[in-house]
Design brief:
The protein contains seven helices and eight strands. The chain is of the alpha/beta class. Helix 1 packs parallel to helix 2 and helix 4 packs antiparallel against helix 5.
Amino acid sequence: MITTLAGGVGAAKLLEGLARFTPSENLSVIVNTSDDIQLYGLHISPDVDIVTYTLAGLVNPKTGWGIVNDTFYCLDSLLRFYDSERWFNLGDRDLATHIYRTDQLRQGRTLTEITRHVCEAMGVEARVLPATDAFVPTTIVTDRGPMHFQEYLLRHRAEPVVKEIRFENIENATPTLETVDA
């Protein structure tokens, strides 16, 4: 059994290579959840999704995130409604994952349970495990005010001066039994 810690595009690429030499059922991946964000009323887990899409063979090879050949009709409509700029790309098939995740969270399922089901639906045999089931978004306090890590990195291209980094709700974050077992 091999257990890795992962977060982001680089880790997903490493896992893609590791999966070629390791039977999937022997691979457990504990994935960062501090990049999780709420957008458009949806719970988005970027790192969990990048790892899942990569291991499923669905990730967009040009960007390293999202789903290959995805379309953006829904996002284009949302941006009109919210009168917003595009800074966080969410493809239509990617949005289906977020809609499902959000619905299941509202029904009381844990992020770990939901991730397991998404992996099964996408044919991923490796154990993809969120580091915690708690929502622990990272807030970057900057000279322009506080903002979510994703907004700081993607929308503002990491340009504002960082004054403080906060892990919101960290006091309620505990590893899951599945994560400890891995």
